[in-house]
Design goal:
alpha+beta, six-stranded antiparallel sheet, 4 helices, 32% helix, globular
């Protein structure tokens, strides 16, 4: 099975959202089937074969997640991040300010789904291969 250390080493190569597809390919090769990242502190739960799970430590102090979801502003911030215009912490701050609580990545379906605090799907993206 994979370890959080392996995943974090792969994540160190990510400088911006533009690097995300390569990161996904690499962790998928480790056996990661999916993961769920929580914006409030950026801890992530990773899922593998046979119900295997492992979890990362928080990456920063707790962010308050807005109760108001602003889908349009979030998508604009996401696109800027994907173009490499923001770093990861800035992106997470943008998520929190626009009401995004978490995202769930399914590496079999190759999707990333962003959710608000009420568990509403705000955006479903196909991950480029």
């Amino acid at each position: 099975m994979f370890t959080v250390d392996q995943i974090e080493q792969a994540h160190q190569k990510v400088q911006s959202g533009a690097d995300f597809p390569n990161y996904i390919r690499e962790i998928k090769s480790f056996g990661v089937k999916g993961f769920e990242t929580f914006v409030f502190d950026s801890h992530t739960v990773y899922f593998g074969e046979n119900n295997f799970t492992t979890s990362s430590d928080p990456k920063y102090d707790v962010l308050d997640i807005s109760d108001q979801t602003n889908q349009e502003a979030f998508i604009a911030k996401l696109k800027a991040h994907q173009r490499g215009e923001t770093d990861y912490f800035t992106f997470c701050t943008d998520c929190s300010q626009n009401g995004i609580e978490r995202w769930v990545v399914d590496l079999q379906e190759m999707t990333c789904i962003y959710y608000d605090k009420k568990a509403n799907q705000i955006l479903v993206e196909k991950i480029p291969s």
